[in-house]
Write a structure and sequence with these properties.
The chain is of the alpha/beta class. Helix content is about 30%, strand content about 30%. The model has no long low-confidence stretch (mean pLDDT about 95).
């Protein structure tokens, strides 16, 4: 059975700063999980005593544990996990920030899920001259929940951040302040070349694309145009393809 991940904010707070093996027989290594996460593990995943679980706090702390008890506490499902080992993971490098105009409907949710699986550090909707979809707060909250579920599914120690909509001008300004490499997805660009930068910002335009003026604005800010395929891509496809190509190229250079 594949290892099941449980991710809750504050789940491992009392183990902050502690890494390495723990004695699972020591009561101090036990942690109780209640509520929907416990119910899902017990009722849906059918986890039982002895099954291994991975506990995550979404901020780099991860624990390997085995289920020591299951049942109901005060009317809700609960499980006790005996921790065997705790590891602290640094954020992945390079830090890839994807700023893409929001796709319509469920396409945006699929894009966030794919970016989370690929290893992007953050996503925020990009507001451009031809942007059509402007996600409201309820949609952004939904995207945050998807990012959490994706981290659990693929075992990411760090949850991908979801930001508020940002204008192109603001995105360019922030990238300059952080000394980030700027990449703008454009069919007229050349193949992506690794930058070696600690942070990379990938700009994806709306279905209508960037205007010529926006391309010039981005290039004046230091953006490099890059093509991620021979065909015109949907927003969500361009974001996922761009993220995959960039992270692969940068990691190969690091190796």
């Amino acid at each position: 059975m594949a290892e099941h991940s449980i991710l809750l904010e504050g789940l491992l707070d009392r183990f902050a700063g502690q890494t390495g093996p723990l004695n699972p027989a020591d009561p101090a290594s036990a942690i109780e999980v209640t509520g929907p996460e416990a119910q899902h593990a017990i009722r849906v995943k059918r986890l039982e005593l002895g099954h291994r679980v991975r506990l995550l706090d979404g901020r780099g702390l991860a624990a390997t544990a085995r289920i020591a008890a299951t049942g109901k506490v005060r009317g809700e499902w609960a499980l006790t996990a005996a921790i065997e080992r705790i590891d602290q993971f640094a954020p992945e490098r390079p830090r890839l920030v994807v700023l893409a105009s929001a796709a319509k409907g469920e396409r945006l949710e699929r894009m966030v899920d794919q970016l989370g699986q690929l290893g992007a550090a953050a996503y925020a909707p990009l507001d451009t001259a031809l942007t059509v979809v402007e996600p409201r707060q309820g949609k952004l909250d939904r995207l945050e929940r998807i990012a959490i579920e994706t981290a659990k599914q693929c075992g990411r120690a760090w949850v991908m951040e979801i930001g508020e909509s940002v204008s192109l001008a603001k995105a360019l300004e922030r990238a300059k302040q952080r000394n980030a490499a700027l990449i703008i997805a454009d069919g007229a660009g050349g193949p992506y070349q690794a930058t070696g930068a600690a942070e990379i910002v990938l700009l994806i335009g709306p279905e209508g694309g960037f205007t010529p003026e926006e391309i010039v604005q981005a290039e004046r800010a230091g953006a490099v145009r890059a093509s991620f395929g021979p065909h015109i891509l949907r927003i969500e496809t361009a974001a996922a393809a761009g993220a995959a190509v960039i992270l692969d190229a940068e990691r190969r250079q690091q190796a």
